[in-house]
Amino acid sequence: MTLAVALAGCASRPVNPPLTHVDLNAGYRFETRQRVAEDKENVVVLAFSGGGTRAAAFSYGVLEALRRIEVQGPKGRRIRLLDHVDVITGVSGGSFTALAYGLYGDKLFDDYEQRFLKRDVEGELLKRLLSPTNWPALSSKTWGRSEMAAQLYDEILFNGATFADLQRRPGPLIVATATDISTGSRLGFAQTNFDVLCSNLDGVPLSRAAAASSAVPLVLSPVTLNNYGGTCDYRMPPWLKRFSQDDVSIRPAERAIRHLKDVETYENSAERPFIHLVDGGLSDNLGMRGVLEVLEVMEALRSAGRPTPLDSARRIVVFVVNSLSSPKTDWDKREAAPGDIAILLKATGVPIDHYSFEAIELLKDTMVRWQNMREIRESVAAAGLNDPVVTRLTNVPRADIYAIDVSFAALEDNAEREYLNNLPTSFVLPAEAVDRLRTAAGKIVLGAPEFKRLLKDAGARIVASPATERDAPLSAPAAH
Asked: Is the pLDDT of residue 351 over 50?
């Protein structure tokens, strides 16, 4: 037996470190982020969907577009849109682009294509899976295919970086999302969620978060976390705790309440000492559920006359970067039924696709409802009426919501839309497909009606962007 095989047989998964005390002012969370542009009036969120390399490339195209687009505000100051992004959520394939941008910033644009997008990641994973030197480790109960995948992601993209490295960089909060296979609920890799696990996210490798977010069941093994819940004196933030109690003065925010109940199960680590995570697309393929819950909480608190953490925001801008594809099949033209694998993939994908559509529509519904409630409130006030019930029911947040839908359906070119819709969900695509995805993303952003409305309402206009100097070659910070 070679030394490599012997060592492989002893392999075990990385263990997320425990946290002895929760500090709400420390760790990788929204409140501790050092943003590039301090702008409290605008909250900008990018939601990157799942979909393998197709999603990673499409999301990357949006980053490229926002990097190149400079706008001139009402005071004449030119700003780059990318510098005003506050949060990026990533699911499965989209999580790679989100995490890599959080780690490298503008240096990502130098060679992300070569290091990941135009690489046969799927082939390299298969090669390692079939290598006899990995078989002893793969047969272990504590080291599986996702650990092997995380090693590859670390070598080709993340270079040993952890969330502590992400915390040291200025920029948006990056939240890669996975699914708790026991409860079906989502778990985002942010310290706010790891507080409940009594675990220190700083020590978790980015490659492991990416592996968890993209751990497709059956293809890859679940990623396992240690749960230390109940050992670090965790306390839910007071403004959020109201939703876990029977406070009748607050209109129910059902999505938020359901998620809080799922999260609270982590506090009993005696019953749940381990958390097994799979692909984030199973619980939220758009990375939108957290956004919808925050908006719901804001609305409920405002209706009860309570303050919210985002009361200073005038605009909440959400770019929903949805790389959902709709490949054609000939099933209905043949008498023979589709095979078992094809049915399994379709049975998994259809509910995900339908929820993705509903999530976008819920965001748009919230946008319209807030607009209508504000108009009613203003009309009642102008008429000199003082109805406390109307006042309470129409007391929605003052922020305008901009739901910018970035999806293939927005393309006017039928041939291009059909080409992108037929791209597979895999971790390998032709270089031409990657380039066409990137180009399409930029076109869709610029042509989006909601994006144009945002510019108009903000008193801004797009100005010519100067040529960008090339940065140094991509390299990660040293791991700590």
From this structure: no
For residue 211, give every residue at least 6 positions away whose Cβ sits within 8 Å of its Cβ, in sequence order, or none. 146, 147, 149, 150, 153, 220, 223
Can you give the pLDDT at residue 6? Answer: 41
Structural tokens at position 272: 């749940």
Sequence-distant (6+) residues with CB within 8 A of 212 are: 146, 176, 178, 189, 223, 277, 278, 280
Among 96-105, 139-148, 244-253, which is the least confidently predicted range?
Answer: 244-253
With tokens 């144009």, the residue in question is 452
Token pair for 15? 């263990």
Distance CA 74, CA 54 (A): 37
pTM recorded for the entire structure? 0.88
Residues sharing a CB contact under 8 Å with residue 362, sequence separation 6 or more, in sequence order: 292
Phi, psi of 204 (to 5 degrees): -90, 125
- Give residue for tokens 């109805």: 387
Q: Locate tokens 């090339």: which residue?
A: 470
Strands of 181-253 (E only): list them: 186-188, 223-226
Q: Is 258 helix (H, G, I), strand (E, B) or coil?
A: helix
The span from the CA of 12 to the CA of 140, in Å, is 8
More confident residue, 331 or 324: 324
How many whole angstroms separate alpha carbon 218 and alpha carbon 210? 17
Using DSSP's 3-state secondary structure scheme, residue 108 falls into: helix
Please give the structure tokens belonging to residue 383. 């008429």
Overall size of the chain counted in residues: 480
Q: How far is the C-alpha of 329 from the C-alpha of 425, rounded, in Å?
A: 15
Please return the burial class of 43, using the count of CB atoms within 10 Å of its CB with bins 0-12, 13-18 and 19+: buried
Residue 416 reports pLDDT greater than 70 = yes
Measure CA 422 to chain center.
24
